[in-house]
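pls ignore typos typing on phone
flavin-adenine dinucleotide + seq
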Amino acid sequence: MTDAIPKKQKVVIAGGGTAGWMTAAAMGKVLGAVCDITLVESEEIGTVGVGEATIPTLMTYNRLIGIDEARLMRAVSGTFKLGIAFENWTELGHRYIHSFGITGKDHWTAGFQHFWKRGRDLGRAGEFGDYCLELMAAEAGRFAHLPDLGLNYAYHLDSSAYAVFLRQLAEASGVRRIEGRIADVRRTDDGDLQSLTLQDGTVIPGDMFVDCTGFRALLIGEALGVGYQDWTHWLPCDRAIAVQTASVRPPLPYTCSIAHGAGWRWQIPLQHRTGNGIVFSSRFMSEDEARQILLNAVEGEVLTEPRVIRFRTGSRTAHWHRNCVAIGLSSGFIEPLESTSIHMIQRSVMRLMQMFPQGTVNPSDVREFNRQTHYEMEHIRDFIILHYHLTNRTDTPFWRHCRTMDIPEGLRHRMDLFAATGRVFRANDELFAENSWTQVMLGQGILPRGHHPVADAMSPDEVRRFLAHISENVNRTVAGLPMHQAYLDSYCKAAVTA
Ligand code: FAD
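k done
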């Protein structure tokens, strides 16, 4: 037995975008006492500069590292997000919201959709979303925290300001930042990563490396040669153009996703400006055409030069290899449709800290990390494919392709099950729960043929009263909420201006 203090492990984080600084802030806070953590980034290279919509799971990360919400919101010019409005996805002119809320009231044998479907067949139900507090609050442009009711929400945030905010936290917990361009990655004789060499000759040795270099994947891809599984046959969009505009109205408490002829565009309202972008498939649309569609559609003064971002949807074949873990865009990219990338960064950061090696890397940890990450990505991927595939649009070659393309078997099964019976089951720990699948499958046009017989146990009048009671409660609560802008002003007004 020895009471000698083990040597501090050297952790090197390559890259200082959202992934790098989220990793650094969390690791500094939790493992700062046992690890020397260095982050290298290059201002000259910069970051991808998008990624401004989040999902409610970010609260877990905030709690983990003790982030005060109002302080964060002020720093990132944040607004609240209750869901995403999808326009023109099912067909031109159609709109639905995928909210973060729970719709109606489930029975343990059957989700609320079964009771709603029965009510609809009897002519006594409104729209499915009428029974969801978050969705109705979003439509009304209202927001408040409502801790007793547990309103589910996330944030829209300025990604550059978010990186600065996290950097301050990370540096306060001892993370060292080095400015410089990585020019070479050295490996040991047995193949592990040994050190990074910067353009000015500085050598940064490490025991563990985290690759947060974005699409470049300098460590996991270039240096270690880990492959990339391409998903463009299911997720054909491969370009985005982003532009910022001045706000023209109070911020909506939701993200807008508006489909066009070969993809979709986003609108993300911040307190001081709006983030806009167009996502498209270069097989079906040229960059010039996409830029024109975007610039014709944006409202408000254009504040930045439109910037093209190229990507390939897919996943690294291993996210942890040897002594290198890929987090962020270096580990893969599904596409921004349901704002899941920051969530996946957070999941990988937490997983890495749970499996952090005590000295040498254990191959079982590596296998488990990769297993969990693959599993999670594949479920999110299927949820995103659903939006493209399940459409009535036939107006362009892009949509005809999406409608008729092959889809993963697991997704086909979920759609068939829902169409026939209205049933949805959440697979283990997957991100999107039953209510999300139900909202999107209904929104994209599947009306189940049947419903669970437990819904038939209610008389028509009981069904009517049950549904009316829920919607009256929702409407009463929504009417008592302040407007989103007023709530932002009182809770977290940002100092920044466009
Ligand atoms: P980057 O931001 O690219 O950072 C890479 C870092 O590595 C930078 O600091 C760079 O300087 C550094 N680097 C690279 N090479 C070198 C080198 N040689 N030497 C030194 N440093 C180097 N996610 C969401 O959750 N919500 C969204 O709404 C959303 N929208 C998106 C829209 C688009 C069009 C795209 C493409 C992505 C979107 N994402 C979104 C994903 C999100 O932007 C990323 O997950 C997030 O920004 C993390 O990026 P990153 O840190 O991995 O990479």
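The mean pLDDT is 95. The chain has three domains: 9-79+157-233+314-379, 105-150+408-479, 239-310. more later
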